[in-house]
Design goal:
Elements: H1 20-51, H2 53-63, H3 66-93, H4 100-125
Length: 126
């Protein structure tokens, strides 16, 4: 019989408390994936809107759909979060804001600012 593992295994994801820096890092990766997945759709919509007046009207009507508006707000959140978290990460690479207190404060700032930008975009859409 094998001996039980000597390390603690804790797999209840609902009870794991991540530090704000880890959460910001995970959200940075998630936002990057969302942006990468949206590139073909955004490029198509942009090209279609510039092709002719009918294409612009089609994309404008498409953007009036509530589901598309929600997706656009999510995309704006991803863009703003990825940009802000990327700047935060690059600054920490050159030792600006690397101390724990500043790192936590900047992580909270990135998360809150990205949500506020998405809320502002939602207000502009509706």
């Amino acid at each position: 019989m094998a001996a039980p593992p000597s390390r603690v295994v804790f797999l209840n994801l609902a009870q794991i408390r991540l530090p704000v820096g880890a959460l910001t890092s995970i959200l940075h990766r998630v936002s990057g994936v969302l942006l990468a997945l949206a590139i073909p759709l955004v490029a198509w919509a942009f090209a279609r809107s510039l092709a002719n007046p009918e294409g612009f009207a089609d994309i404008a009507a498409w953007l009036a759909n509530p589901g598309v508006k929600v997706a656009a707000v999510l995309w704006i959140w991803a863009l703003s979060h990825h940009l802000l978290a990327g700047v935060r990460h690059m600054l920490s690479d050159v030792d600006v804001g690397s101390r724990l207190w500043y790192a936590r404060k900047s992580a909270y700032t990135v998360n809150i600012a990205a949500v506020l930008i998405a809320i502002a975009a939602a207000g502009a859409f509706w």
